[in-house]
Amino acid sequence: MRTTFAAVALAGALTMALTGCVESGRTDSSRSTGPAVACPVPVDETFTGSVRLGYQDIPNGDLIVKDTGLLNTCLPNGKFTWSKFASGADVIQAFGANSLDVGLLGSAALSRALSAPLRQNLRAIWIHDVIGTAESLVAKDPAITSVAALKGKRIAVPFASTSHYSLLAALSAAGIDKDVQLVNLAPDAILGAWKGNQIDAAFVWEPTLAQLLSDGHIVVSAAETAKAGKPTYDLAGARADFVAANPAFLQVWTAAQNWAVGQINGDPAEAATHIAAQLGIPVDAVRRQLGEYTYLDAGTQSGTTYLGRQLGADLRGAAEFLLSQGEVQGVAAPEVYSGASYSEAAAKVGAK
To answer: How far apart are CA 189 and CA 14, in angstroms?
Structure first.
């Protein structure tokens, strides 16, 4: 039951990705709401390019950079357009249509994009966060206390997302990956389906997760599937040609993101204020959510792990698992995944 439903929905998603239909779920939201802050590196007035940035409603440094207008401060002669996306699947479609330069997507979505049939030429330029309990499988029936108890149930998840990947891993480990019905829904649609009793469970991220927990409970989290060998990350992806043409911009952009991580880890109260303004939720809720992720600075990311080495191995491992689940048509050569990491900007920023 799971395989048939997922295959049909996935085929539709891939068709849209290849034909370039990317407007669904996308809105232009370039407005900065918070006070401007000083640029953490020397201001570069020579950059005059236009950059199309994709973000999601996920509590990490990307929202701080957006809220403070930091890119406009550091690169005053550049033009930056921020567009909101519902999930990594939408970001993949935008990359495929060449309508996005840099965008937030999960590690599972990037792995899917690098694999057949899409084979997109993308680079991971930053790890926004390592996902922990912020993505979890929530059930409404109190009697469902294990993944196995979801046999025969309807479970909602945004396809081509890290939550989708973690859910497939949990279902496979429980031996019921062929015995549930997966429903492909964006986070806001998941909330509506939950309230309308149209689904039995959902695997999703904050802030939707917190809303489901008002009358549901966590069965398993991404932190647990990571411990079982299926880690997930929220990444900044970029087209390979854009990366090659814009090393100076990427160094400033990385410095801004690194500054935001410093705010989260060093002054979480101030960081939460900026993120709450972008998400439209209470600051206290953001403070709680920040504890459900791990945020890495540039020096850590560009070392021998993460962007330096580990990410490539994790992307390939995700691709192999997705192939076993029928979610991709083929795994690319190992160098495709190892070569997808762009650590040069993080290394330069981390060395300062």
So the answer is: 20
Q: Measured in whole angstroms, how far is the alpha carbon of residue 229 from the centre of its chain?
A: 19
Terminal Cα-to-Cα distance of the chain (whole angstroms): 53
CA 126/CA 120 separation, integer angstroms: 18
The beta-strand segments (E) located in 185-254 are: 201-205, 217-221, 233-239
Kindly give, in sequence order, each residue whose CB lies less than 8 Å from that of residue 12, ignoring residues fewer than 6 positions away. Answer: none
Q: What is the mean pLDDT of residues 75-81?
A: 98
Say which residue the tokens 């232009």 belong to: 28
**Calpha distance 240→72 (Å, rounded):** 23
Q: What is the DSSP letter of 173?
A: H
Could you tell me the domains of the chain?
A: 16-130+232-350 (3.40.190.10), 135-227 (3.40.190.10)
Taking alpha carbons only, the member of 314, 272, 306 closest to residue 291 is 272
Residues whose CB falls within 8 Å of the CB of residue 105, separated by 6 or more in sequence, listed in order: 88, 91, 92, 113, 234, 235, 237
How does the average pLDDT of the chain come out, rounded? 91
pLDDT tens-digit readout, 190-248: 999 999 999 999 999 999 999 999 999 999 999 999 999 999 999 999 999 999 999 99
Instruction: Give the whole-angstrom CA distance, residue 221 versus residue 225.
Output: 7
By the 8 A CB rule, do 296 and 130 touch? Answer: yes
Helix or strand holding residue 187 (H, E): helix 187-195
What's the rounded mean pLDDT across residues 124-132?
A: 97
For helices 107-114 and 310-324, angle between their N-to-C axes, nearest 10 degrees: 70
Binned at pLDDT 50, 70 and 90, residue 14 comes out as very low
The whole-angstrom separation of Cα 316 and Cα 335 is 9
Query: CA-CA distance, 96 to 244, in Å (whole number)?
Result: 18
Residue 18 pLDDT > 70, yes or no? no
What is the gyration radius of the CA atoms in the chain, in angstroms? Answer: 19
